[in-house]
Specification:
This protein has 456 residues and is α+β, with helices and mostly antiparallel strands. It folds into two domains: 2-77 and 119-286 and 329-451, Outer membrane efflux proteins (OEP); 80-117 and 288-325, Outer membrane efflux proteins (OEP), CATH 2.20.200. It has helices at residues 2-33, 42-52, 54-71, 119-187, 192-227, 251-261, 263-283, 332-399, 404-439, 447-451, and strands at residues 80-92, 101-117, 289-301, 312-324. Strands 1-2-3-4 form a four-stranded antiparallel beta sheet, with no helix packed on it. A hairpin with an 8-residue loop joins strand 1 and strand 2 (101-117). The protein starts with a helix and ends in a 5-residue tail after the last helix.
Length: 456
């Protein structure tokens, strides 16, 4: 009686194990397809984030304000004009009451001035162009940051979806193993230990499923808040995935490129130029100024003046040059020059610091991408090995040379490897964007390269 029961149990186990991969594949397919029914690509969600994200909108408005502030510097080299008008009434009392009277005076003055030689004003005007460069660099930084933040949130959701799918697949596999252990125990081909081990592993996977569901919920909320959508559904990556290569394959080329385009270096270079012009402004405190001035005045007295009682109108006009030479300002100019020279040296130091920081960040990001690509290849090989190990342990369990815990451990290792592989792929794609951000060449167009690797 024992042998037929054992063979019958093995046949049932074989049948169930044959069905399990099919049900697992269907479950994974349903899990993967369902969220992408109305899925959006990375580019689509980035455009939504660009129009909605408060941090980027703040940076854009700050950029517009900086442009307007830079335009204000033009006032120092352009002419100015003003109009002044006034009315007064004067009372005149005399010892002779018959001579007492009062009269009105009306006047209007139009004046204009054009700076001819003002070195400080011209330095301020030149600083305005550098301030525009600074504003553009700050906006570029905000834009690159938005690209990375959107991509990070996008891949976080995909990774959470993968984790939940793998945990559920593992839960189904452990449930099958638990059912098998119970049946084998009932027919007397295994001990209660196998059942309890499978039950313990099943309970653990249930806890992992709850954690994965909550993590997915949080990641979706983060993405929704960033892009301004409700229930945003990112498209998944195609499988098998062809990871983009690193071009150029030379870290020094990436570092050299950053010297020309990185927003932080451009910002520091503009700050140095502004500091140099600030020195010129301070030195202009010792230099004379020359302005062209003109005025036109009309004074009208309808009731006469103190000298006579007749109506009068006086018109005067003048045009000329106004020359001013500073002689002594209490040593303020000399001290101002010393201050600006120190600030210039600080700007030089800041520029060198920015270059070193960018170079370090670029090298770190470059080798991070290479390491990630190597990790993906290693995990792909580990996935095949883990699958082979699981198959071998299942077969060994059937013939009695492996115990239930061996199969459970192999299942856990396989699904952990799958999760690590999926995460490593996302990290490589995100690392490519971070590499371009590190050397300052990242742009929204770089997202198109990832879009081509998404499910259509």
């Amino acid at each position: 009686m024992t042998r037929p029961n054992k063979l019958s149990a093995q046949r049932v186990l074989s049948m169930l194990e044959g069905i399990a991969p099919v049900s697992l594949a269907i479950g994974l397919a349903l899990t993967a397809v369902a969220p992408f029914a109305k899925a959006q690509s990375l580019v689509e969600l980035y455009e939504s984030a660009r129009a909605f994200d408060a941090s980027y909108q703040s940076a854009k408005l700050q950029y517009d304000a900086n442009l307007a502030r830079a335009d204000q510097a033009k006032a120092g080299i352009l002419p100015t004009a003003g109009l002044a008008a006034g009315v007064s009434r004067t009372g005149f009392d005399n010892t002779n009451p018959a001579a007492d009277r009062s009269f009105n005076t009306q006047n209007a003055t139009l004046s204009a001035s054009q700076p001819l030689y003002r070195p400080a004003n011209w330095a301020t005007y030149e600083q305005a162009f550098k301030q525009v460069d600074q504003a553009k660099a700050q906006l570029d930084t905000a834009e690159q940051d938005l690209v990375v933040r959107t991509s990070q949130a996008y891949f976080d959701v995909l990774a959470a979806l993968d984790t939940l799918a793998f945990v559920r697949a593992q839960k189904a596999a452990v449930a099958e193993q638990l059912a098998s252990a119970k049946r084998n125990f009932e027919v007397g081909t295994s001990t209660i230990t196998d059942t309890r081990e499978a039950q313990a592993r099943y309970d653990l996977v249930v806890a992992q499923e709850i954690s994965a569901e909550n993590d997915l919920r949080v990641k979706k909320i983060t993405l929704d808040q960033l892009v301004g959508k409700v229930e945003a559904q990112p498209k998944g990556l195609v499988v098998p995935l062809d990871l983009p290569p690193v071009v150029p394959l030379d870290v020094n080329a990436w570092v050299q490129q950053s010297e020309l385009v990185h927003p932080n270096i451009r910002l520091a270079q503009s700050a140095l130029s502004i500091a140099e012009l600030e020195v010129k402004k301070a030195e202009a405190g010792h230099k004379p100024t020359l302005d062209a001035v003109a005025s036109y005045n009309i004074t009208r007295s309808p009731s006469g003046t103190t000298q006579n009682a007749f109506s009068s109108r006086l018109t005067t006009g003048s045009i000329g040059l106004q020359f001013n030479v500073p002689l002594f300002a209490g040593f303020s100019t000399q001290n101002r020059i010393r201050e600006t020279l120190s600030l210039k040296d600080k700007a030089i130091s800041d520029l060198e610091g920015a270059r070193r920081t960018v170079a370090l960040g670029t090298r770190t990001a470059y080798f991070g991408v290479l390491s990630g690509q190597g990790q993906v290849k290693a995990l792909e090989a580990a996935e095949l090995s883990s699958q082979s190990a699981l198959d071998a342990n299942k077969l060994g369990y059937q013939v009695g040379v492996r115990i239930n815990i061996d199969v459970l451990n192999s299942q856990s290792q396989l699904f952990q490897t799958k999760r690590d592989l999926a995460q490593a792929r996302y990290n490589v794609l995100l690392g490519g964007l971070r590499l371009r951000q590190a050397n300052g060449t990242l742009s929204p167009e770089d997202l198109q390269l990832i879009n081509t690797r998404l499910v259509k």
